[in-house]
Design goal:
- The chain has about 525 residues and is mostly helical.
- It has a single domain, classed as MFS general substrate transporter like domains (Growth Hormone, Chain: A), CATH 1.20.1250.
- Helix 3 packs parallel to helix 5.
- The protein is globular, with a radius of gyration of 23 Å.
- The two termini are about 30 Å apart.
Length: about 525
């Protein structure tokens, strides 16, 4: 049931990507309103998931999960019957709020049901595979629904799903909450939510308002101010929402950075690849969606292959000292020999190897030209998807293995917020870069006077819908311009995953499980069980 809810959540992130043309024909929506319809879900989810995750541990994980599923279902019904753009925007934001309740609870329930590290690692690998199938498979489901029914079916599908998942969760998922209850950090929750909302908003609006525009810069400045205030408050309050010792642990902050950069690369690439398949290769929404299925399938395979390495980590740790931070020659707290090199390898290997494999996949995508066709796109998806599965399973286990059971939802929220921020950054930055390079290349071929008034808008919705005279006379030039732009975005994404691989190789260390009532401290060096 938990994974079914996660699949629905992941699908909702991307399911509307292929429904935009039909939606615009049915509703009197401007380009800005369409952008908010698509991005409102991710904006609310990314901005509130951290504060909601801290609340979930105390309120109850099953209660939070079921409430999130019900809210998603109700908001989806509202979206399906919406007659005005503002109603659809409100519905998508409501779905994002439900997802913020649901998402941290998924990993928290897994952490509670599978306290033993090896079993938890297996469950997290399944969680990572299902999440990838939902998020990356959204365009397939959306394409089929749009072609068979209408864009409204992308909302209707959630209503029966939510009902089944909510009832099933009440029947089979045990309730759990933090054993030691502390006061809720209301100010910290407000500061973190406001800061993350401002950050995600600025990232989302940057491509449309200009990265150096007054509104975008104001959003980034507000985010910096609010998140700085949040950090200051967490260091001083007696009951912090997010104890800073959690983030200081290398297995948390390094894994979080790896997940952020991987999400940046992969979700941005999925956005670009969908445009390439529809605009350059000429596939319809369903055909394009089906041709992106190898990516989530390979991701699931990669997550499954991470299992042996994740299981061996606990086996190698038995009889050795588990050390937070840098692994010294001798663990000072115990005087015993530090964990063997294979112990550290077992933790870092899936993350580092996976990131390098993803980088290799982007090297393939960077060589894809206008006449390459689908085969290179297929190779990219198989290679990058497999590597992403290794990273997702191992990095998530690294984060969750470092937090105690009493803060499982908080650890899940840290993991989830990094993914959402990376996804938003990837789509915004790669989409903006794609538009800029595409317009520049097209200008060089046609001259400024031959371009449509807003070529970026035409590209963002459907490259094949460029004005007929332009498409007929210079179709080859348009395809070459897009291929050049896709090469630049692929190189950018590959550089991000390469940097993440180097960081993980140098800094990622094996997690040491914390006692159920404590949060890990950066200086603590407990013995592994």
């Amino acid at each position: 049931m938990v994974c079914a809810g996660l699949f629905m959540l992941g699908m909702d992130v991307t399911i509307l990507n292929v429904a935009v043309p039909g939606l615009r024909q049915d509703l009197p929506a401007t380009t800005a309103q369409v952008q908010w319809i698509v991005d409102g879900y991710a904006l609310v989810l990314g901005g509130t998931v951290l504060s909601v995750g801290a609340f979930t541990d105390t309120w109850g994980r099953r209660r939070s999960f079921v409430s999130g599923v019900v809210l998603c279902g109700a908001a989806s019904w509202a979206g399906a019957v919406a007659g005005e753009p503002w109603q659809l925007i409100a519905a998508r934001c409501g779905m994002g709020a439900g997802a913020a309740l649901l998402m941290p609870a998924t990993l928290a329930v897994i952490h509670h049901v599978f306290p033993e590290a090896v079993l938890r690692a297996r469950a997290i690998a399944v969680w990572a595979a299902v999440g990838g199938l939902g998020g990356l498979g959204g365009p397939v489901v959306g394409g089929w629904l749009v072609e068979r029914f209408s864009w409204r079916a992308a909302f209707w599908i959630n209503v029966p799903l939510a009902a089944v998942i909510a009832v099933g969760a009440l029947l089979v998922v045990p309730e759990s909450r933090a054993e030691r209850r502390t006061g809720f950090d209301g100010l910290g929750a407000v500061l973190s939510a406001a800061g993350l909302l401002a950050l995600v908003w600025a990232v989302t609006e940057g491509p449309h308002r200009g990265w150096t525009g007054p509104a975008t810069l104001t959003g980034f400045a507000a985010a910096a101010l609010l998140l700085t205030a949040f950090t200051w408050w967490q260091a001083r309050t007696a009951t912090p929402m997010l104890p800073l010792t959690v983030l200081r642990a290398p297995q948390v902050h390094v894994a979080a950075v790896a997940l952020t950069l991987m999400s940046f690369a992969l979700f941005g690439a999925l956005f670009v690849l969908t445009l390439y398949l529809q605009g350059v290769l000429g596939y319809g929404p369903l055909e394009a969606g089906l041709r992106t299925m190898p990516l989530p399938a390979a991701l699931a395979a990669g997550a499954a292959c991470a299992l042996p390495l994740l299981s061996s980590r606990r086996a190698a740790a038995r009889g050795a000292a588990g050390v937070l931070g840098r692994v010294p020659e001798v663990a000072p707290s115990s005087g015993r020999t530090a964990p063997p090199s294979e112990h550290a390898l077992a933790v870092r290997l899936p993350v580092v190897a996976g990131l390098l494999v993803v980088t290799l996949g982007f090297a393939v995508l960077a060589t894809t030209g206008a006449t390459s066709g689908y085969p290179r796109c297929l190779v990219f998806q198989l290679v990058a998807g497999f590597g992403a599965g290794l990273v997702a399973a191992a990095a998530t286990e690294s984060v969750m293995g470092a937090v105690p059971s009493g803060a499982a939802a908080l650890g899940s929220a840290v993991n989830d917020s990094t993914r959402q921020l990376g996804s938003a950054l990837g789509i915004a930055v790669q989409g903006s870069l794609l538009t800029t390079v595409f317009t520049d290349r097209l200008t060089a071929v046609l001259g400024r006077g031959s371009l449509p008034a807003r070529p970026a808008d035409s590209l963002g919705l459907d490259l094949a819908r460029l004005p007929e005279p332009l498409r007929s006379s210079v179709a080859s030039g348009v395809r070459e311009a897009f291929a050049d732009a896709m090469t630049v975005t692929a190189l950018t994404a590959g550089a991000a995953t390469a940097v993440a691989a180097v960081l993980a190789a140098c800094r990622l260390r094996p997690p040491a499980p914390a006692p159920s009532g404590e949060l890990p401290a950066a200086s603590r060096t407990p013995a592994a069980p």
